[in-house]
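Blinded run. Sample ID left blank on purpose so nobody reads anything into the name before looking at the predicted structure. Input follows.
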Amino acid sequence: MNLLLCDDHQLLMDAMTSSLAGHGHHVVGALTDPRMMADTAAHLQPDVCIMDLGYPGGGGLAAVRQVAQEVPSTKVLVLSASTDPAAIRESFEAGALGFVRKTDSIAGVLDAIEHLMNGEVALDPRLLRAAMSQPPAASNGRESATYQLTPRETEVLRLIVEGRGTSDIAEELHIATSTARSHIQSVLVKTGVHTRLQVATLAVRQGLVSS
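Blinded prediction complete.
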């Protein structure tokens, strides 16, 4: 797996580069300036960008958004010292697909990378529940009664709220992974949001499923 790192702590990046390499990954670049992230990602085409948010003026969040928009083939994993629910929500709204804490072990980072490459969101269920306390970002002003979810889609939504990944949803419902992925996409389209974090937040806030 080709990875691009961006953090303002060189020692942390050096340690992560060594650890990730020891687990079969290749760090193609390590940046300290988030403003260089999108251009570098476009040039190197890494599978995953691991991005710190802790930059003055919101530079980290802006970089996440830029990579997600300009290099959609590259998945963004946020690495943050903060577990503030608003920061988590904003990261996913900007286009990140995963969020890990700097206090997590390298095993947590590796697990998050695997989830991303399997087409799944990487977020600790405890952080997901905390982020749910924030208002949904994109409900398009519609009431829950207009979403018209099928019974199966409602089951899928319940499992998303529980923090389950695509493979877990497929196993729980005894369906193919590709079918689970299709149901998830349908839920997102019908509710008018773009990420699992947003739809989980929307579900809890509007009572679409039991919390």
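Unblinding after everyone has recorded impressions. The chain has two domains: 2-126, 144-206.
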